[in-house]
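Sample intake sheet
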Amino acid sequence: MEFTQQPGEGDVSKRTRPVALITHWKISLLAVCLVAVIAYVFWSNSGRAQSRAAPQGPISGAQSVPVATVAAKTGSIPVYLNGLGSVTPLNTVTVKTRVDGQLMSVRYQEGQVVRAGTLLAEIDPRPFQAQLTQFEGQLARDQALLENARLDLQRFTVLVQQNSIPRQQYDTQVSLVRQLEGTVKNDQGQIDGVKVQLIYCRITAPFSGRVGLRLVDPGNFVQTTDTNGLVVITQLQPITVVFTIPEDNIPAVLDKLKRGVRLPVEAYDRALQRRLATGSLLTVDNQIDATTGTVKLKAVFPNDDNALFPNQFVNARLLVETQHEATLIPTMAIQRNAQGAFVYLVKSDQTVAMHTVSVGTTDGDMTAVEGLKAGDVIAADNFDRLRDGVKIAARNPPANANGGAGP
């Protein structure tokens, strides 16, 4: 049997062979690309994992954290009550004239510190000296009339006993003598009044203190009705500070005052950085301010160096008592979280552990706490790098430390 090739059949097989080769080549290229992408992704993820794992070495504790340490100690700590206050002079006076007249002279310098009795100013005394002369003349005249009336009364007394004159004439003479005695007393009173006015012409300081700015110049006519006065004098030594404390602290203060205990008071500046003066508590006010729940206290200060100035704002610190045998640590070593106050206690294996403490009195950079004993070593800095179980390298281990608590 003879087969004959139809026209066009050989051409079809030649055309399909190149198409199949191109298809296999595309599949191979696609597979290679896929493998390359998978390898790149794997390599990238592996690099990120290594980079993330690299910084975990120090956090895991392989490297010790340098920390300054300090040991708790036993000591005494003062208990202060703090209050805002202002400086108040014991005495302040506006010197005014007590007589009307022309101001002749001013004998003080503005800002001068004067003693009690120091002459401050003079008012023209001549009108009062003239009145004094007039009243002295009236007194001399009335005294002469009184002496004459008394002589007549002596004569009338003898005559009335002899029934030589009427009794009425004798009684009239007795009344005249009494009238003249009253007149003489009145004259003497007028003289004394003018003498007092002459004294008031010399204006003197009622107490020792500092003179303020001059309010009236010489030559002006001053009157007793003037409201401004001549000058203001303020006592500076001693001086007081009035401050407030919460009403809950009143019993402790009153108990000490009843027992005669002298309670020291320190006055500090506005920023509580510099101590201005030291004094003692003088008294406690007799009522509590219902709006603020505080009570006023007054302390007295010698103020020899004039460090306190009237109406100056100060911070007062009242020493109520001193706690002895208290466990003291630096205030900066105390940390706080939601559970309360704690410290990082250094263990014997040079790791730290969070240790809860109860905070008591604080004085400056030292605080009394409960929950520690003398000699316990605690961390004093680098708190942001500390956690439970972190190993530390103590930079300045205390010489008297007991190594802290065991692990």
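Comment: Residues 153 and 172 are 9 Å apart (CA to CA). The two ends are 105 Å apart (CA to CA).
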